[in-house]
Amino acid sequence: MLAALPGGRAVGGAVRDALASRPVADVDVAAPFPPEEIAARLAAAGLRVHETGLAHGTVTAVLHGQPVEVTSLRRDVVTDGRHAVVEWTTDWREDAARRDFTINALSLSAGGDLWDYFGGREDLAAGRVRFVGDPATRLAEDHLRALRYFRFQARYGRGEPDPAAIAAIRDAVPSLARLSAERVWSELKRLLAAPDPAGAVALMEETGVLPAILGPDSLGAARHLRALAAIGAPADPMLRFDALLTHGAAAAARRLKASNEEVARLVARYRAGHDLLPLQPEVAAGGPGDDALRRLLAEQPRDRLLDAAWHRQAVNRAWSWQGPDDAAWDRLRARLQAMPGPVFPLLGRDALALGVPPGPALGRLLAAVRAWWMEGGCTADGPACRARLAELMGDIHGKALPEG
Questions:
Q1: Whether 37 and 119 share a structural domain
Q2: Taking every annotated instance into account, which residue ranges of this chain make up the domain Poly A polymerase head (predicted)?
Q3: Is residue 164 part of a domain?
């Protein structure tokens, strides 16, 4: 590809991660040509080209079945904190100067020559996340960089954070209100996917960034994340997001325009946690019994019960609240994973076959049988449940139908 773009270089994350001996996910390329010329040169070289980002200076070329974004060198003309008006340039340093952090401003030629205009290689080796140039200027250009800072701090930072960056971010907190909810949600999930985001989240609390985007219910977020890590919970961004808030995670996710599936997961975790909470004494004592676990699995999705167990264990640990020990929680999760999920064996057609007319009465009867089935530990089979249904029907001429 670079042969078709003389003077082109790999830029950004691919160079950074290669220098850090980390897996390289996506390769981005920049070239000192206008986007239309880049597209023409790549097409002439036999590559399939998609011009979906042409207005922003980017085209996508497909190389060996993999998409590679190729972008014209740019300089900012006007910025407003969310969008930028750019012009094409042939000046590599000018293009690098508009990037956020020094570790992202590196570029590499096909021959292996590295260009590092702002000390990014040294910062990468030192575990230092530093803005290119003046931090306040970079943040004024794009307010999202305040959140991006913490994502890169979580993945690449070591030791004390850059004081100039932290001071500028603290001053920029009021501007975060101008960010779109979608951009905040996307950046937050990427941060929470880091191997250990607790230190970065603690910085977000300290600087006022976290309460600015999540509200006061984020008190103790870093403490909860450290507890999740200590108990060996999965590195799941949604489980971690749930732990950022003392309550109201689903409502916060809705405000941030999370997907319906993501919000539903948080709602289901809350409901599962509500059902699990009163069973904590039994969990601590080595229970609960199989009947109680079957009732849980009949009412709540297995994965959400597991989420709830991790969540409750972490919160107990974070605040030193009395509850089951780690071994007891581990046993509970193992039993939940191993136990088959019970399925209520009756359908509406079973009631219709016994002569129950369609309508509200049918629903009340099925609900009553299901309540009986639950009370018995979800073990009654189809014939037993149909017998109970016939029993509840009673004398159709005089007996009142159960209210369910």
A1: yes
A2: 10-130
A3: yes
- For 48-66, give the DSSP string: EEEEEEGGGTEEEEEETTE
Output the domain CATH number for residue 230: 1.10.3090.10
pLDDT given for residue 26 in this prediction = 83
pLDDT for res 402:
46
Question: Is residue 166 located within the same domain as residue 225?
Answer: yes
How far lies 275's CA from each of 293, 314, 343, in Å?
11, 17, 18
**3 and 105 belong to one structural domain:** yes
Question: Domain residues for 48?
Answer: 1-126
Cα–Cα distance, 216 to 228 (Å, whole number): 21
pLDDT at 397: 37
Can you spell out the DSSP letters for 56-120? GTEEEEEETTEEEEEEE-EEEEEE-BS-EEEEE-S-HHHHHHTSSBGGGS-EEETT--EE-SSSH
Among 239, 258, 277, the domain boundary falls at 258
Residues of the chain with pLDDT below 50 are 395-398, 400-404
Beta bridge partners, 114, equal 108
Predicted local distance difference test score (pLDDT) of residue 82: 62
| Same domain (yes/no): 167, 80 | no
pLDDT at residue 135, rounded to an integer: 97
User: Can you give the pLDDT at residue 54?
Assistant: 77
Q: Are residues 251 and 145 in the same domain?
A: yes
Q: What is the pLDDT of residue 401?
A: 45
> Which pLDDT score, from 0 to 100, does residue 134 have?
96
Tell me the two tokens of residue 217.
């219910």
For the chain, first and last CA: distance in Å?
Answer: 69
pLDDT recorded at residue 81: 53
> Which residues have CB under 8 Å from 84's CB, separation 6+?
76, 77, 78, 98, 141, 142
